[in-house]
Amino acid sequence: MTISLSGGCGCGAVRFEISEPLVAAAYCHCTRCQHRTGTAAQASAKTVDGSFRLVSGEAALGRWAPGSGFDKVFCTACGSAVFAQDPDDHDRVMVRMAAIDGDPGVRPQARQFVAYAAPWEPIPDDGLPRFDERLPSL
Ligand SMILES: [Zn+2]
Ligand SMILES: [Zn+2]
Description:
138 residues, seven-stranded mixed sheet, three-stranded antiparallel sheet, globular, 35% strand, binds zinc ion, mainly beta
């Protein structure tokens, strides 16, 4: 398998590889992302189904399964948000852009769930399309 990208958590326990270029990326302003990151928004990128592979750290992974949407997977040792995974199909993965080593090769193309944006930080005036709810393509 050709490795396109690699990455991991802050403490190094969790490491992953991605075998195909990332498909797309977006900022998410939803309240779940605010809570799990402590920030106003987080950038995540969509992987090609089946291209994400965990290299190490399986035992360190924690999962927040809020009842709908993807499981939010993080490192229980350092708290880093690492990826999100479809609970019904583990081949479907969104990777947190900050977890990727170096340049991920894609840039966020939109902002989703802006209807829930944090009141304490203005949404950047960066020209990206804004969606009140989920971005359909992600
Ligand atoms: Zn860690
Ligand atoms: Zn979100």
